[in-house]
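Lab notebook, entry 377. We have the chain sequence and a SMILES string for NAP, and the next step in the workflow is to get a structural model of the bound complex before anyone spends time on docking refinements. Request logged below.

Task: model protein plus NAP, output structure tokens.
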Amino acid sequence: MPHPYVLLSAAVSLDGYLDDTGPERLLLSGPADFDRVDEVRASVDAILVGAGTIRADNPRLLVNSPERRADRVARGRSEYPLKVTVSGSGDLDPAARFWHTGGEKVLYTTDRGAERAHAHGLAADVVPLGPELDWRRLLEHLHAVRGVRRLMVEGGGLVHTQLLTQGLADELQLVLAPLFVGDPDAPRLFGPGSYQGGRLRLLETRAVGDVVLMRYEPTAPGTGALPSAADHHWLALACDLAERCPPSGTAFSVGAVVVAADGTELARGHSREGGDPVVHAEEAALAKTDPTDPRLATATVYSSLEPCARRASRPAPCARLILDAGIRRVVTAWREPDTFVPGADGSGVLVDGGAVVVVLPEHEERAQAPNGHLIGR
Ligand SMILES: NC(=O)c1ccc[n+]([C@@H]2O[C@H](COP(=O)([O-])OP(=O)(O)OC[C@H]3O[C@@H](n4cnc5c(N)ncnc54)[C@H](OP(=O)(O)O)[C@@H]3O)[C@@H](O)[C@H]2O)c1
Ligand SMILES: [Zn+2]
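Result returned:
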């Protein structure tokens, strides 16, 4: 089930705190950065904060610029992004500004929390997600029911930590403020946990007044059948590579990338690469890996098309080459159609060999684009 693009946004002190312990909210960034945040807010479908942030900061979470709001309306969007909060307890102050400013609001909570939320008479759509709050279900619901494609998450630390440790964040926009908090009782931005993102990829740094904005994206593949945000990045890259294949009327155009568990790219390839008229993408990529590399055992292969199960041009199909390399996780966009090999079932071969195959149909259209002439499009 598709998720929105999840963008985490936070400001942090030089010593890693996102607030002090005083009653007032600590202002970490300055006017130029507040304006930048306003611009990001204007660009998203929804803004989410945890219940802790509503209690501590009583934020409004509005798009403040009238021009940006007018621009949203001109583009057929709501004037304000949907406001979303999460609470297990359902114990939220019905007088908080969150409920009484801006556009629509939704509270995701537990079954028990929903009872309390109703008792408080919160001015919001209350959505119980079961006995526990499950972030994947929350994101699926936002996408499917609320039509949210871009979600901005503005804290607090507990929410950011969970989204990062569960591999659900697509981007982190972190602002480093030139001050120290120095109080060990203050809330830290990121708590302990087993972070899934791997080494983050730096997308941008920008000075905004006296703070520095850093934009990162996670790189680590998901684990098992659970897709991570970075799985989408790598599969999109495989689809880009498919576009580079020399055209053919008799074979698919496919791209493939091999990625280690920590997010390091080990190899990439595409069909008919380097003038070889029959080489397949996965085969081309695997040929560039070192067969003794211990990282292969926990690596993921991203292939725009399901790896092949049978082929005439080489002794071993790609599904077999992947298993022989010791790789046990494959992410693909599209199951192989019957165009050339009726009943081809590369996923079956992989699963029989002990691998997990994850299909992300969100990428199917892009994976098929360079193959339209072969599948009657
Ligand atoms: N510097 C910044 O950029 C920034 C941004 C935002 C906030 N902040 C600061 O962050 C602090 C608040 O952060 P925080 O970590 O305490 O709070 P938070 O992340 O905003 O919210 C935590 C609350 O959200 C609910 N929640 C989160 N995950 C849940 C789950 N899996 N299941 C059920 N409920 C869940 C719980 O609500 P219930 O307790 O109701 O169950 C939990 O107590 C404040 O000091 C604020 O000033 C700073
Ligand atoms: Zn193949």
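Notes for the group: The domain at 5-217 is CATH 3.40.430.10 (Dihydrofolate Reductase, subunit A). Worth checking against the assay data. The radius of gyration is 23 Å.
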